[in-house]
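#struct-pred
JK: can someone run the complex with adenosine monophosphate? inputs below
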Amino acid sequence: MRKLAEACERIAATTKKLEKVSIVADYLRSRTTEEAAVSAVFLSGRPFPMWQEATLQVGGSLLWRVVQELSGKSEQELTAAYRKLGDLGAVAGEILPSHPGADLSALEVQRRFRQIAVARGPAAKTALVRELLSQVTPLEAKYIVKIMTGDLRIGLKESLVEEAIAKAYGGTLGEVQRANMLLGDIGETLQLAAGGKLGEGRMRLFHPLGFMLASPAESAEDALSYFHNAVVEDKYDGIRAQAHCAGDEVRIFSRTRDEITESFPELLDALAGLPQDAVLDGEIVAWSYLAAESNEAGRALPFSALQQRLGRKKVSEEMMQRVPVVYLAFDVIYAGGELLIDRPLRERAKILDELLAMERTPVKPRSRNDQGQLIFEPPEPETNARVIRAPVFQASSAEELDQLFEAAQARGNEGLMVKDPESVYTPGRRGKSWLKMKRELATLDVVVTAVEYGHGKRIRVLSDYTFAVRDADRLVNIGKAYSGLTDVEIAEMTRWFLEHMVEDQGFRLIVEPKIVLEVAFNNMMKSDRHNSGYALRFPRIVRLRPDKLPEEVDTIERAREIYEKQKN
Ligand code: AMP
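RT: done, structure tokens with the ligand placed:
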């Protein structure tokens, strides 16, 4: 681990990409393949390979407490160091007492990470983190903490590690990228490269691939400037999900490639028994089934409805009935033994249509009871109706697209996804082959009540703002936003906030409620995170509103109205 930490210091010291790649390549070559493989994962800023389920579940405050305890420093000293350096790893490197260390290898560090991941409860985790950090040098601790927090901050992206692997072991960059994309494991990719077997990298069922991402389009004209004949689908406001299906085994992965199968037991029966093994791409949405006489299958409910279903390991029957979900499939990545990512969308769409239209192999339906045990029960009539092929439209003019946009909004969806029928599926990449057109966002005028120092290059400025709306004669917080202002504005605001501080809480300053902002957001949720009872999804600052007085900010009633409106 010492060698790896030293390499990281050298990587951080140069801004030149080629030099960074050379340092990584030299370091990797100097280690055994096994150690280099683990190091490659660490150098991508992760404790475990991308596809693996394991997560440390160690929060910043736990790490903070351990670092403070081992350093013997006061809270104020630690806060001052944090403000100066901007991340807890760097703080650990600077304030932990000098120590010869037990010379743990990167492999040993990863073994410890696994122990931490499986340990239950903060006390057990704290003990293991403390043990690990007390056995390493401050420099090693610096990088161990950075890996644990998931951000190395040395200007090294996974793409540069891929370049370094190509440089260290041969093989073209394209081969390394493809193997890594298919395996979701940069360590395993390195092992293949070292053995001259990059071509053997294959997609594996139940190992999630990256998701193809979309770029925003400003308008219908803008969208059609990239391609003329567009495949158009509604943009559903749910969560992206990749479904891996083989007979009656089904697993579902989120956009962060975490497994979320357990949260949606009712989708498993619906996805089981496809006639071919397949990996589908789609969106899980909360769904309202319409009356049988309606010719619509139903419609998606806003994200706030789905929210109640998220993050649950065990889902009660009652919850499944109260908030039913469906899987809206819009793409297929793998089917019948063939990886389909290099086929154009129009072909994949046809394969998806056929796959979902084919008769299912009957499987024993399963469901979970409240204790999480698997129970068997008679099939429900609408089981298959829980997997719906997202309806596809065509548009070749801005007028057509605008009409589709209105219709999508009338159905309660966020907007449109406009896709190039000739495009291949590019996992993990955001290109111009998929464009998203979203609804005009509601904005709120709010007043800033508290501010925090930012991260990274914003560590010395107050850039994170908590803001409130009015509730009769008091202010109630409704959200927190980081982005939207220019560096100059942030610097000016920092000066103002420091002069108008009401209370210094270390990390956070309570400030006089004078600064009015206009904030945009994607939608509003009920939440007890803030005392207004609401929270905003993806809030961003549109502009400062020096023309408005704090008395003029929006009220909780208006927030409630927006919330109610988006529910319809
Ligand atoms: P955004 O999250 O705003 O970047 O928009 C992209 C997201 O829209 C995707 O990651 C999906 O979760 C979601 N989405 C909803 N409907 C579709 C669709 N028909 N095709 C692709 N993505 C969709």
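RT: quick notes.
The longest strand covers residues 278-288.
The chain has three domains: 2-159, 213-438, 442-567.
JK: thanks, will look after standup
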